[in-house]
Write a structure and sequence with these properties.
This protein has six helices and no strands. It is an all-alpha fold. α2 crosses α5 and α3 crosses α5.
Length: 95
Amino acid sequence: GDAALNPLHEGRRVEEVKSGLYSTYIGTCTAWFEPYVSPALGVVAGSAVAGSWFGSALLPATLAYSTVKGVGWYDWGNSGLNDHEMKLNGLTKED
């Protein structure tokens, strides 16, 4: 959607799609476990925790996001790294 509609990508829309397609693909393939988090949590911590906002929404989404980002999904800006992560990896900011 962003590559097709964003005016900043005028004239290079295909390149913009290609630049993030592979990393998004390999990252999102790791989020397969998300629907299983709440049922597994129910077994370990009980149905009250699994059925809560924490167990059914926050925890599964957070785990999936961290896995996807860790494997290859790049967020907007800094190739997916925040300032602290860039410093840890010895990288410099691009202007």
